Amino acid sequence: QVQLVESGGGLVQPGESLRLSCAASGIIFSVNPMGWYRQAPGKQREWVATITRGGSSTYADSVKGRFTISRDNAEKKVYLQMNSLNSADTAVYYCNLPPYANIKWNWGQGTQVTVSS
Q1: Cys-Cys with 38: which of 29, 45, 91, 111 at CB 3.0–4.6 Å?
Q2: d(CA 65, CA 88)
Q3: CA atoms of 17 and 110, how far apart (whole Å)
Q4: CB 37: neighbour CB atoms within 10 A?
């Protein structure tokens, strides 16, 4: 059974940084592309970033240049380095397969990121 566990969220001030982690189990992690998503209060979940199994990355326009996705296949983890955070980044962040995948694994509990002064 696939399990995704996100961590690393918190309360930060505008302009600060956070690094999120997602630990995956129950899968052959290295062969799967991975994505980060977020859901702000009252809004639908939206895609943030994708990393292929080869390490290529793509980003939503809203985070391009500020966020960096990476992966550690040995640790079965995917990371999201978030810099220059602003209030619009406040959301619960999740990892899963990217949008172009035909399936999604069961969503984890997510990790809350709150950007506020």
Answers
A1: 91
A2: 15
A3: 18
A4: 23
